[in-house]
Amino acid sequence: MNRIVILCVEDEAEVREAILRDLAPFKPQMRVEAAEDVDDARAVLRECAQDDDPVGLVLCDHLMPGVRGVDFLIELMKDPAYEATRKVLLTGQAGLEDTIRAVNEARLHHYIAKPWRAEELLQVVRNQLTEYVLSTQEDLMPFIAQLDGPRLLEAIAAGKRG
Amino acid sequence: MKPGKRVTGMTSIKWMGLLLSIFVFFIPFIFQFEELSVAGHRVLAIFLMAIVLWVTEAIPLHATASLIIFLNILLVSDKAMMALPEDFKAPTYSSFFYALANPVLMLFLGGFFLADGAAKYKLDKNLAKTLLKPFGTKPSNIILGLMLIVAVFSMFMSNTATTAAFMAVVLPVIARLSPSDRGRIALVLCIPIAANVGGMGTPVGTPPNAIALGALNKADIHISFLEWMMMIVPFMLILLVFCWQMLVRLFPTKAETITIEIDSAYDRSPKAIIFYVTAAVTILLWFTEPLHGIQSAIVGFLPVVVMLSTKLITDKEFHSMQWSVLWLVAGGIALGDGVGKTGLDKWLIGLVDWEHMAPGMIAGALCVAALLFSTIISNSATANLLVPIGISLTASPDIAISPITSAIFIAIGSSLAMSLPISTPPNAIAYSTGQIQTKQMALTGVFIGLVGMLLFIYAAPLIWNIFGIMPD
User: Fold this and answer.
1) Cis peptide bond upstream of A115, omega within 30
2) What is the pTM of this model?
3) A31-44: average pLDDT
4) Are A157 and B171 an interchain contact pair (Cβ–Cβ within 8 Å)?
């Protein structure tokens, strides 16, 4: 089965490591990828596309050298291949204007302010991936153990009722 | 991944299945069997193809069903594309299409509407909340309560939907238990087990029951809703209590108390009340057929008419119903029809020397065959393939079992198969929670299969005869 990709874009190595550590519980089932800037992120997306692995979630910093996070998310929104992808900003330095653009133009799904708590991050990622799976996957069962089980089960029940 | 990139989703097993199904289809056209009519050869071809397609699921189960109807019409109906012998009384092509509107399907559709309404107005959750209260907080009592409620619900709703809905309620409870508490295994396993067992209880409980009833109807044998329940429910309850005891002994709960929180309140809107009344009247009429004589399929159409005209079921909900389940059952009915009308049944029976076999053994063998088959393949597909054979057996003077026993045993046998995650969708759901291992499911599943089998093959016919429940 193709694995769902969680892509984390963050320029500071230490912060990136911390995020990856927090996302470790998703690793057996999901493909967790990290990129240090937007160019790198695009390369990762190309690789995933080649492997036919769908991108479920992009967790993105805003202030980075080169293209900024919000602009990258807007770019993703315009590509039909990543329309369903859940888009989350994980940043401490996005100003009001950038945040508004992220909401309006990139349909931002969630904003996590730095510093974050591991528990909060896990919860957000779990909920966002549950939404992604509900909107894109026909077979929900493989995700019950890892994501929001009760919600997925309710959806299965609704689909099989009558 | 670009949308639309994943095109077929065909695995190599499915490709093999597709090729093999075409290959076996041509066997009866190439090899001629003595004493089998021309039409019988053609239905044999359809039958062989159906076996391969239903086992490998090379195409969706209901697609196979539609193919069966189509091929029956093209090959052995009065509008057949290939000439049939003059002396063969070909069934009309419309008789094969009628399978799609068989009264049993209408009965099942009624069940769909009730289940949809129950979910929409949260009647299922609310009833569960009310009914669970008397069972307190002691883990073993809670498990018994859950099992009884799940079983009752799955008598009227799909086993899969019931399992998914109740598993959603149980998962948060399990999350609060200590990881070393084996009680979590009992809590997860009790739901699919109760749903699988509960499905046996009524004609609308699970598709194999409908397939059995549909085939019996074709043979002019009518079993009422109540008769089915009187035959099955007592044994279903005994089996359920056995399963409960097995689970609480094998996987005792360490926690002293557990509480199941269901957050919902009874809906008192006018639409909800129309639904409650409709559901109550429908079920009451199903239970009282001997008093008024209105057949259960006709009663089953009542919620359909009421809920559509009051818009309790919207267009969108109507469109997203599980029509594929009905088509699958229809495919089985059409297959049985073809087998019966072309003499394939008599030829198949002639292959075996039945005289030396006790009737009980034959009935038992059918039940065992159904259990083994449906451990691996879909319960409905199992019933679709075995019921026509089972019913035709009873046409032979050498074999002293009634068509009712034969058809019901196959339906029950296919519901008893629950030893693997792939055996039934409820099992797959339980397994997908990540809380149990296959070996635990296999252990309990094999036990239940054996005990259920003994109960139904040995005890049930005895009791049926003593109390005269068995309809003639």
Assistant:
1) yes
2) 0.88
3) 94
4) no
**Span B432-445, mean pLDDT?**
94
Count Cβ atoms below 10 Å from residue B216 Cβ, excluding itself.
22
Opening angle at CA B150, ends B223 and B183, nearest 5: 140
Asked if B115 and A162 count as a contact pair (C-beta separation under 8 A), the reply is: yes
Spatial CB neighbours of B231, under 8 Å, sequence gap ≥ 6: B408, B460, B464, B469, B470
Indicate the residue of A145, A150, A154 with minimum beta-carbon distance to B432.
Answer: A145
Å between B441 CA and nearest CA of chain A: 17
**pLDDT band at B472, cuts 50/70/90?**
very low
Whether B1 and A81 lie within 8 Å, measured CB to CB = yes
The structure tokens 């019913």 sit at B391
From residue B406, alpha-carbon distances to A89, B179, B220, B362 in Å are 63, 45, 15, 9
Per CB-CB distance under 8 Å, the chain A contacts of B57 are none
**H helical segments located in chain A:** 13-23, 38-50, 69-78, 96-106, 118-136, 149-160
Torsional sign, CA B120, B124, B130, B132 = negative
Least confident of B222-236, B358-372, B415-429: B358-372
Q: What is the pLDDT at residue B471?
A: 55
**In angstroms, rounded to a whole number, what is the distance separating the alpha carbons of residues B88 and B371?**
36
Chain A residues inside the 8 Å CB shell of B433 = 144-145, 149
How far apart are the C-alpha atoms of B356 and B283, rounded to whole Å? 44
Instruction: Specify the pLDDT at position B9.
Output: 62
Beta carbons of B139 and B183 less than 8 angstroms apart: yes
Taking an 8 Å cut-off on Cβ atoms, the answer to whether A141 and B167 are in contact is: no
Q: What is the pLDDT of residues B193-216, one digit of tens each?
A: 999 999 999 999 999 999 999 999
What whole-number distance in Å separates Cα of residue B390 and Cα of residue B103?
Answer: 21
Pick A150's closest partner by Cβ from B5, B157, B172.
Answer: B172
Contacts with B9 (C-beta within 8 Å, 6 or more apart), sequence order: none
| Complex-level ipTM | 0.84
pLDDT tens column, B315-346: 999 998 989 999 999 999 999 989 888 888 88
Query: Contact at 8 Å (CB) between B183 and B177?
Result: yes
HEC readout, chain B: CCCCCCCCCCCHHHHHHHHHHHHHHHHHHHCCCCCCCHHHHHHHHHHHHHHHHHHHCCCCHHHHHHHHHHHHHHHHCCCCCCCCCCCCCCCCHHHHHHHHHCHHHHHHHHHHHHHHHHHHCCHHHHHHHHHHHHHCCCHHHHHHHHHHHHHHHHHHCCHHHHHHHHHHHHHHHHHHCCCCCCHHHHHHHHHHHHHHHHCCCCCCCCHHHHHHHHHHHHCCCCCCHHHHHHHHHHHHHHHHHHHHHHHHHHCCCCCCCCCCCCCCCCCCCHHHHHHHHHHHHHHHHHHCHHHHCCCHHHHHHHHHHHHHHCCCCCHHHHHCCCHHHHHHHHHHHHHHHHHHHCCHHHHHHHCCCCCCCCHHHHHHHHHHHHHHHHHHCCHHHHHHHHHHHHHHHCCCCCCCCCHHHHHHHHHHHHHCCCCCCCCCHHHHHHHHCCCCCHHHHHHHHHHHHHHHHHHHHHHHHHHHHHHCCCCC
Q: What are the pLDDT digits (tens) for B137-159? A: 999 999 999 999 999 999 999 99
